[in-house]
């Protein structure tokens, strides 16, 4: 695969808040995101995406998109994917960092016979996620597979 570049720009708006945009995305739908200092820091703002949230979201989103690609190529029959993700920020060697990320993906399948395949694909997705491979945080995953039988209407 050849190199790709992903561009973003941020402009300070006021206080501890700015607007984050991407020229590639703005061509299509003009979506920008407010970004602010999180409330754990002085003058932080509640209710606005923070760089820390976006960091954790990038890892979670990468797991999902990588899972979807591998599941499609592996013809895994599933009905739902969701993932709750938690990042732990702490002081390490005198510097604040995201030391740990806990991914808690849930995949819903119709048949118990697909459980092992779903687990294998989730593990492959976590291993292949380029965002996870680009950070030094410890990343762990708690996998949850649910089986919901398919209902078929007979009349």
TrEMBL record:
Q: Which SUPFAM superfamilies match?
A: OsmC-like (SSF82784)
Matches recorded under InterPro entries: KH_dom-like_a/b, OsmC/Ohr_fam, OsmC/Ohrsf, OsmC_Ohr_Peroxiredoxin
Q: Which residues form the signal peptide?
A: none
Residues in coiled coil: none
Q: List the protein's name.
A: Peroxiredoxin-like protein
